[in-house]
Amino acid sequence: LGKGRSAADAQKQYLRSLKGLRSILTRQNTQESEGKLRKVEEEIKRVENEIQSSGRNKK
């Protein structure tokens, strides 16, 4: 039980750092940061979906 909790916390921590990275890239707004920004946003969506689906699976 405790293991699942720490995995969820790790995902949320990862999500926070991704969102921080996204805001940095948004401020830079260069050609290079645009490509990175797209990757970061895809990763954010993926992690958010994972967090949501793992939350639904636990009853």
Automatic annotation (TrEMBL):
The keyword Coiled coil applies. Residues 30-57 form a coiled coil. This is Uncharacterized protein. Keywords: Coiled coil.
